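Anyone else keep sequences and structure tokens together like this?

Example one:
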Amino acid sequence: MLTHLKLRHLRCFEVAACQPGNGTTVFLGENAQGKTSILEAVCVAMRLQSPRTANLADLIRFGEKEFAVSATLAGQELLFGYSGNRRRMTIDSETMRSSGDYLRQSALVVWMSNDDMALVRGGSEGRRRFLDFLGSQLHPPYRPALRDYERALRARNFLLKRDAYPRWDQIDAYTRVLAEHAAILTRLRRELVARLEPFAAEVQAEVSGRAEPLGLVYEAAGGDRLEEVLAGFRDEESRKRGTAAGPHRDDFGITLHGMAASRFASEGQQRTTALALKIGQARLFLAESRRPPLLLLDDIFGELDPGRRNALMAALPVHSQKLITTTHLDWLRDHLQPESVYEVTRGMVAPGT
């Protein structure tokens, strides 16, 4: 359990601290006061990444040069500091040599927000980020394979752009490296989608209250045969000067009743499907790791009708610690009494009543 959190020079906060309860903690306040940034800080402390930006420098408070987040998790003191040119990761004051060493001792995290609708009706990039966040928490080989793939992809794209006529002998050397890591990512992503599907389908039925068969279909862009696929794209790559296939273009399709949810589902169904993916992720974590994940719920309840809201609350993993942001408590009191309430105003955090 997360029992203490402290932020320094993060987003709108100069310094802030709180003590989450073992069950549900609520951060109450108007919009644009800093509530979401608190949950973001928890995610960064636990997973070394933000669900809101790929660039951690964006989290540094204006006018400062670094930020730091410390958290007490199951009695251990985790600290992550970022200064733009270096990262600091410690557990009980011991410096971790690698992010893997740090992450193995942190918590699994599920982030839920209104932006999750983009999983259903947005572009493929958001769904890839979802798979990467899921895979990097469940499988130790996932994160290094993704990092090495992205490094090889940048080098290959550089060579495609560098010369007036591509030097295929040099480019092909990176193609082989790219294909090696692509095969790992493709296998892990295919397995993730297959294992996630039954959990997401289960939640879809529970939250919607009716039979709405949900399906997930992995769509690999080259994957296991990447070298062969890229060999057929040489003319296109010579024109566009970029890698035409690979996991950086992967996607997964989402269907309801066998039809594309992005095109044929109602807005309510799409919202439920987005929630089903995230709660399905939480159930998958619990099933495979035997550890209830930490749930970060960013103001997701206001857009739901009472029926779906009630069903969502019932579907959340019972033993997971929950950190919730909201602009009012009226709806929440109908479901549970939070152990801790904090009021957030203009970058200040104070115990609520």
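And example two:
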Amino acid sequence: MSAPAIFDLTGKIVLVTGASRGLGRHFALALARAGADVAVTSRTVASLDGTVGQITALGRRVLPVALDVRDHASIQAAVAAVHAHFGRIDILVNNAGCNIRKPALEVAWEDWNTILDTNLRGVFFVAQAVARHMLAAGRGRIVNIGSVTCVAGYAGLGPYGASRGGVKQLTMSLAADWGPSGVTVNCLAPGWFKTAQNAVLYENADWVKYLSDKIPLRRPGALDDLTGALVFLASDASAYVTGQTLLVDGGITVNDTRALAASPPTAPPPPG
């Protein structure tokens, strides 16, 4: 198979959760540009209008679906609707997530539940629901979205880091479960990227300089930096890759950890 062909997603059906904005919208558009037809989800269908319009403009089929990953019945209904509409699901991008940033002593019981129910329990049960169809078909690609906090700790991100570390471990377990049936499961872990959630902090030039000094490539990530890694994990190019966490972080996780101990001018946002 030629190099261009193994990255080609023409005719593939993709489900992207949390696709109304930010990384999720970018992932949906990146896969559509690679040839895929896309089902996009959010808690409210109306919030997907922008994503739907952009995918339609690319000439791809798109289906907006309401999905609350904290609700088991909602997961089952959404996955069933996508499968009924397209007839199959070839690729899942398990992106929906949230964060509540607080010092550890201020984290409330419900804060923990909201973050873990969304970022870890939701990832598992969406993957489970989609995998039932993939396993029956004997093929599939699942890409769980983690973050640099899968492998590194940051103050104020206790529950968030626990959830993302759990995604890394879950990815390995599901890869072992489903690999014999032709389904690969990998984790794409972004480093420090500017999104709508954390954009205000990137307006602080001192903080951006502090952050960039800790990254070997000397800049925060741009959304396009994630495209190649995502298409790789979603395509036949990664046919013999499973259970892996691919960090797209500019190298921050290989830097001298002693340098990370200094206090930044402004507390950093969650990565991803």
